[in-house]
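Dear support,

Our group has been running a series of protein-ligand predictions, and this particular one with zinc ion is the one our PI (initials K.S.) wants archived with full inputs and outputs. We had some confusion internally about which version of the output was final, so please treat the block below as the authoritative record. The input we submitted was:
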Amino acid sequence: MLCAGIETFPGIVQESFLDEISGGDLKAFKVYLRSQKTSIGKKIDKRTVYNHFNNVVSFLNTYGRRELIKQTEWPTYEEKKVVAYDPEVLAHLLKFADEDEADVLEFFLGVNFRNGEGAHVEWPDINLRTKEVRVYSKEEKFGWQVKDSEQRNIGINDKLAERLVARHKRYPGNGLVFGNAKGNPDTHLLRIIKRVALKAGLNCGQCVGTHQRKRMSCANAPVCRKWIIHTLRKSWASLQDRIKTDFATIQTELGHSSPLTTRKYLAAQSHNTPRRRKQINAAAALVSQNGMRLSNKNANRANLGIGGNGIHNRTAKNENSIHDPASRRPAAGHPRDDAKEMGEAREDSGCQDWRSDQV
Ligand SMILES: [Zn+2]
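Confirmed final output from the archive:
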């Protein structure tokens, strides 16, 4: 299959042969890409424009057509921080959803669909025996195409499968899973998610959006920009990554042709989730445990009179035994000794911060 961008490029240029293509054609292609819209009518984002453009330039490079356009004339985009919802936040959100709302939320979270993919899924696309759902273009029926023409199958978790069985009983037939009242694709599924987020008190309270034709704050209207279906998709990828699903499976199920795109879906964890707190403390514990082990080992070596500077140790022990009655304390593993040794190490390193941290 051809990469995104390469399929559309021949339709934009006038030339029939590769060696006739010029920088002007690439500039025209850039303008064309910027005017393109997604299945929900929004302009495609700058990063997608760049990706499609990059695919075409790489293709031309392969056939020896290099340096047709200056780097400064390439489409540009800003690298965004990858954001995903934490599991704790999602669990809280779901508590505020009724059955129909939870169907939408758990579906998008469970199968990583894009907005358009969820809006066009029909009951026959779901196999509840094998627990998988198929995504493919439905041009004839709905005039809708899956992004990058990438068909794929995605596994459905057991809980979502049960939920879908219950939904199918409420909404029988072979139509759309999330159709609107007229049986057409519901292009406003995002509104459902934003509505639940407001009920759950999970809006940021800082942004403004249009609700019932009025500009309103997200503090009291379902307009928070924090809540988008694409972030549920990224959350799916990040959760898969955290449970150590292999990268190739994540990439395939997301429908990405490039691993670089998948990499950009994996968000770092928020530092204040219970899981991350546990990791932060576990990482710190590695240092203290090794510090303890080193202390014990050194004390044992000193007692046995061995080590790289065995003579020094022996001498020190002898000196202590003469001048310091306290040195008769058992050295190995004694907490006070460990503390003393840590203190000495700190004195040696001259690091003030360590001292205050360790107290
Ligand atoms: Zn907001």
